[in-house]
């Protein structure tokens, strides 16, 4: 029997449980459980994998149900059907592939990272902005002369006035007289 | 017809079932149940009960084997467990400990 490189799960074969190793694995059959590889996992068009996967690279043409963490790249081809969360620095999805799940390509870039660098290069393209026309009018209309000179308010009389004023008692008296 | 190959660095803990031959170069723990042959290659380690049409052991197999046809222990093979099969071959140099049942009619 010819010796083949790597691991192959043939079309009529089902594996359930834990699969670990440091080589590439090609699945044409079914795998169920967990797959931990230092290598690539290839899922063929007719294959189905129901497993939580931690691999270097993942290539899906068939059905994959389960969360995947790849240290390098995940690539979903047009016949792929994936249900699960995908996490990898590079994720490639081809037209036709169907996914349901979260896709995570790592942390968002720092706020002061990329956009600021590209901004100065764009400026020369918009010349009109740098020198706006002086739109402001001087408005030389003379103000109408005032009839009277502004009256300065006299300085308010200090604490003394406070003591004398007692208008309340007076108002009370008039009310009673009418009734 | 494609074979299933479990490569030398691979460890499977669980069950392998199917219709295709299985070639083990790595480690399998649990159970193997296939309709074709199971080949335990040199340097492979199988700690599993095996049901297959035929079984060939050139590595190490620990577990019970039931075969519909032939079980062959190669010269480098080591096996601990019971064998139930109509035809059993043990080569010179092979190590074996366990029961053998060839379903002999009395």
**H/E topology pattern of chain A:** EEEEEEEEEEEEEHHH
Strand content of chain A: 35-45%
Number of helices of chain B: 0
The interface involving the most residues is between: A-B, 25 and 27 residues
User: Strand-residue fraction of chain B?
Assistant: over 45%
Helical fraction of chain A: 10-25%
Structural class of chain A: mainly beta
Q: Give the averaged pLDDT of chain B, no decimals.
A: 94
CA gyration radius of chain B, whole angstroms:
13 Å
What global shape of chain A is seen?
globular
Strand element count of chain A: 13
What is the overall shape of chain B? globular
Number of domains of chain B: 1
CA-CA gap between termini of chain A = 126 Å
The ordered string of helix (H) and strand (E) elements of chain B is EEEEEEEEEEEEEEE
Query: Which value, in Å, is the CA radius of gyration of chain A?
Result: 41 Å
Q: Count all strands of chain B and give the number.
A: 15
User: How would a textbook summarize the main sheet of chain B?
Assistant: 9 strands, parallel
What can you see in these coordinates?
The complex is a heterodimer of chains A (179) and B (106). Chain A has 179 residues and is mainly beta. Chain A has a domain at 7-104. Chain A is 14% helix and 37% strand. Chain A is built from three helices and 13 strands; from the N terminus they run βββββββββββββααα. The longest helix of chain A is centred in the last third of the chain and has 11 residues, at 168-178. Chain A starts with 6 loop residues before the first strand and ends with a helix. The relative contact order of chain A is 0.08. Mean pLDDT of chain A is 76; it is low at 124-132 and 165-179. Chain B is an all-beta fold and 106 residues long. Chain B has one domain (4-100). In chain B, the strands form two sheets. In chain B, strands 2, 4, 6, 8, 9, 11, 12, 14 and 15 form a nine-stranded parallel β-sheet that branches. Chain B has a six-stranded parallel β-sheet with strand order 1-3-5-7-10-13, with no helix packed on it. The A-B interface holds A 1, 4-23, 25, 28-29, 33 and B 1-23, 26, 30, 34, 39.
